[in-house]
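[Discussion] Sanity-checking designs against the backbone

I'm trying to build intuition for which residues belong where. Below is a structure token string of 293 positions. I'd appreciate it if someone posts a full sequence so I can compare it with mine line by line.
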């Protein structure tokens, strides 16, 4: 039925025997450099093979959850194409437990109170502004911004990093009120240690792809999102399979019933994974699902 499994697949130190054909599992999948193909952020895409593999897993009775650092604006369509029942956007800053029925407008509105399936773990904008100004007082040329309601407010041209992404230039004196998803930074190598020393105790630092630094609510994690989905769907964490590539995926891979790293993952991620599948550009996650159905 499916194509032959790639020879790049190999077992980690704690090989698990998983049969997806019995259903009742939760597949938790990262997007960038895990299931999406392509190396450049703006050019990454979801293959037909991956869509078909996840569709087959769902047909067998398994649930799917996406766990991504992306905001709803750039992940919403991908979540729907994967048929995900839940999604942890913003690395867990916004957790949607009814992803097939929530709207993009609801997900991007921090004032929304009617959809009880959307949970938010953010930081008041006023606190984010205070932190940004404190950092800029010490590091004036730090590239920094606040993400609020799917809008990125930055003190630099975000298109210099992500050419297709929209943003609003600000000095943080004109920020709207609300609950922000995160503070985002792109420190230079010279700035990194100074930034670390200035991070306040009430914020958690997450680093994505060695470039994007995020300051977030400590409860905004992919692991918290996975645990909430397990509670909502009545699935034990031992019946979860998590796929990832980056350091911010490690907590999910470590606490899932089975953690699967793609072969292009960082060494630290592969070291704690139960299994390693082929790379994102080889549709490694799809290959793993095909092998276990």
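Best answer:
Here's mine. Compare freely.
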């Amino acid at each position: 039925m499916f194509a032959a499994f790639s020879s790049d697949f190999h077992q980690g130190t704690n090989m698990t025997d998983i049969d997806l054909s019995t259903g009742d599992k939760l597949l938790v999948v990262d997007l960038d450099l895990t299931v999406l193909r392509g190396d450049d952020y703006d050019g990454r895409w979801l293959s037909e093979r991956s869509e078909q593999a996840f569709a087959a897993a769902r047909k067998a009775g398994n649930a799917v959850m996406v766990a991504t650092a992306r905001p709803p604006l750039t992940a919403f369509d991908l979540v729907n194409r994967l048929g995900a029942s839940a999604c942890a956007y913003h690395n867990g800053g916004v957790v949607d437990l009814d992803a097939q029925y929530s709207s993009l407008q609801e997900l991007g509105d921090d004032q929304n109170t009617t959809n009880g399936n959307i949970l938010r773990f953010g930081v008041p904008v006023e606190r984010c502004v205070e932190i940004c100004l404190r950092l800029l007082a010490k590091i004036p040329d730090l590239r920094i911004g606040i993400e609020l309601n799917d809008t990125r407010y930055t003190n630099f041209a975000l298109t210099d990093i992500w050419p297709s992404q929209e943003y609003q230039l600000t000095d943080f004196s004109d920020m709207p009120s609300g609950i922000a998803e995160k503070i985002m930074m792109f420190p230079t190598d010279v700035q990194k240690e100074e930034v670390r020393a200035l991070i306040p105790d009430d914020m958690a630092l997450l680093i994505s792809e060695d470039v994007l630094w995020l300051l977030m609510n400590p409860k905004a994690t992919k692991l918290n999102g996975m645990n909430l989905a397990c509670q909502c769907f009545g699935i034990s964490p031992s019946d979860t399979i998590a796929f990832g590539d980056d350091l911010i995926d490690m907590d999910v891979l470590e606490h899932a019933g089975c953690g699967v790293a793609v072969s292009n993952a960082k060494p630290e991620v592969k070291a704690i994974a139960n299994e390693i599948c082929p790379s994102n550009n080889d549709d490694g996650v799809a290959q793993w699902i095909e092998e276990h159905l």
